[in-house]
Amino acid sequence: MNVWFQASNAFVTLPEMIVALTAITILLAAAFTKESDSPRPEALAIAGLVLAFLSTFYAPVGPGFFGQVFVDSLSRSAFSIVLLGAILVMGILPTQFGKDTIRCEASALILFSLCGVGLMVSGQHLMTLFLGLELLSIPLYILAGLRTSDQKSRESALKYFILGAFASALILFGMALLLAETGSLSIANFFDYFKANSTFHPTQIFYAGWILVSIGMLFKIGAVPFHMWVLDVYQGAPSSVTAFMTFAPKVAAFLVLLKIWPIGWETGFTNSIPLVYFLSMLTMTAGNFMALVQRNVKRMLAYSSIAHAGYMLMAFLVTGREGRYALLFYLGVYALANIGAFAAITIVSPKKDPDLSIVSLSGLVKIHAPLAVAFSICLFSLTGLPPFGGFMAKFFLLKAVINSGNGAIAVVAILNSLLAAYYYLRLVLVMTAKEPTANSSMGQFPLGLGSRIVLALAILGVIVSGLTPDIFSLVIRL
Length: 478
What we know:
Helices cover 72% and strands 1% of the residues. By secondary structure, the protein is an all-alpha fold. The protein has a domain at 271-478.
């Protein structure tokens, strides 16, 4: 066994192995202990995630499993961001589910989904990517419907499963077409195929396969017009689960797109550049306009996540390290702000958060001022206001886009940011300037210690990343 591990260089996936073993340990601990004596699954999960994060500094890089995966600084940095975000998400679970034993399953499912993220960001073979995709997606389908007594939760799980299965089928069909055209499922071989055909003109089969795989990844990031699942799933799923959904699938899908989209302009296949322009502008504009008319807090944040996906798509117009760094920095800060926002939602309404309306937050500052201030800081960061991390994320991204000669789409992004400021600041105004509603039940919500710590850490993260963005170099090691 040791010889096989050395020959395959399997230890490049050491962080993923630690995460998987932690998930198995949680399930075994829950199965072989009495319910009253069962250890806190979140504590075990956080310990495993911290160990996995530390291992990213020492685990080897390079090819593993005989070329099936390739771990480099980009994939390692992306997985580190997801690990840190998952640590924060674990702190929200106790507030969301109380003493319900479902917490064990929720913790384990999140960890298994993380393993899928790890396979996707480092996969060098299309079937490895597909395996990671399913390992990421199937636990999320279950997590979305964890609250079986809630109709919206059941509905969100069913819609996510049906549409997710359809997207997976498109990806698999696209991979089959790419195999038929190139004779290989290895991403590295695509480059060799192009180099061997210096006058390469993509055939309709290659176009079809490339587009189908791209559509499946765009579905995972919620880009327009493949965003139809985002609203109901984000609203119906428990807020702690939604917080995880906002960043983990996006990181995985964006890293896959970085592997298959740069093939175009590195080989003269420039048809993908107008496609990025169109998708980015359509996604950010549609997401922001649809968020303007929302009256439900989670649906508003769902549409805002669609708009942010449009902003991040601009990074594909920038080649080299600058574009990759801007994308990872944006993903990290975006994850912090969203985790903080959904932690606040969980504190306010842990059981009925799918129906949390903007009006129901009226006068929150008079009921619980620290919570209102913390929630507002998260919204300021999502808006892109200084001195918070969201401002620096948009600054780095727009700077990279303008330097690459794409100033027109940068102007569109700035106008969209002004549009987004309206609905973010409207929610802040409701919390700070309005009087509490007569039928408001706020003031009775439980202030879970875990969610309070998570919210505090998220606020600290968005402030520090805004004032000293270089601190992210500890995580983004490009």
